[in-house]
Amino acid sequence: MSKGLLFVVSAPAGCGKDTILEQVLEKAENVGYSVSATTRAPRPGEVDGTHYFFLSRERFEQMIAEGAVLEYTEYCGNYYGTPKKGVEDMLAEGKDVILKIEVEGAMNIKKLFPECCLVFILPPSMKELERRLRKRGTEDEETIMRRIAQAKNEIDTALNYDYFVVNDDLEDAVSDLMAVIRGEKCRKQRNLDKLNEIKGE
Fold it and tell me: Would you put residue 200 in left (φ > 0), alpha (ψ -120 to 50) or beta?
């Protein structure tokens, strides 16, 4: 059984990455999702263990000390990180795995898994991103302005990624991300063993 592929998806807050990933995971076959851990409070409708593992700061720092997170970062005053065991188990089972993480964490994952595929989801414009953040109605003005400033910094790092997906239309964005997943599985370097098998070597 071949090992699964690792996909890292990043995007500024308000770009719709959660909605895109939800639909991709419904449609894609043999693709798992690594639930991140965070110390931020749940938003209305978010479920522990589904959207995030919501942890206390003390518990998160304990996991860091134990080496139980692949990567972590502090973003807007809260920790975000990737629990190690779930990712390693799914990849070993031959499942492709999607990680939804911030840009700093993505660069750390790339060092640990050089073969992983990095995908950056972009907003159609900064103006539209601000509109979406305000429409959520979950944050105060200071937090919104901080997220917009953070988004500009994150977009500056997008050139470190392998693919861009612009979320102007949800259906197109979902289709584009699924095309990336399919395309990566067909990449020559990932299929040399299959080529030799076909040739009878």
Answer: left
Q: Which residues contact 100 (CB under 8 A, 6 or more apart)?
A: 9, 10, 17, 18, 21, 33, 34, 36
Q: In what order do the strands lie in the sheet with 69-75?
A: 53-54, 37-38, 78-83, 69-75
Q: Left if phi > 0, otherwise alpha if psi is -120 to 50, otherwise beta: which for 123?
A: beta
| Secondary structure class of 165 (helix, strand, coil) | strand
Place of tokens 């959207």: 51
β pairing state of 78-83 and 37-38: antiparallel
User: What span, in angstroms and rounded, lies between the C-alpha atoms of 169 and 122?
Assistant: 11
Q: How many CB atoms neighbour CB 199 within 10 A?
A: 7
Per the listing, tokens 């419904």 go with: 26
Tens of pLDDT, residues 69-126: 998 888 778 998 999 988 999 999 999 999 998 888 899 899 989 999 999 999 999 8
Q: What percent of the chain is helix, strand and coil (3-state, nearest 5)?
A: 50, 20, 30
Question: Per the structure block, which two tokens stand in for 167?
Answer: 């979320």
Question: Residue 147: what residue type?
Answer: R
pTM: 0.83
Residue that is written with structure tokens 């992983």 in the block: 116
State the Cα–Cα distance between residues 154 and 126, nearest whole angstrom. Answer: 12
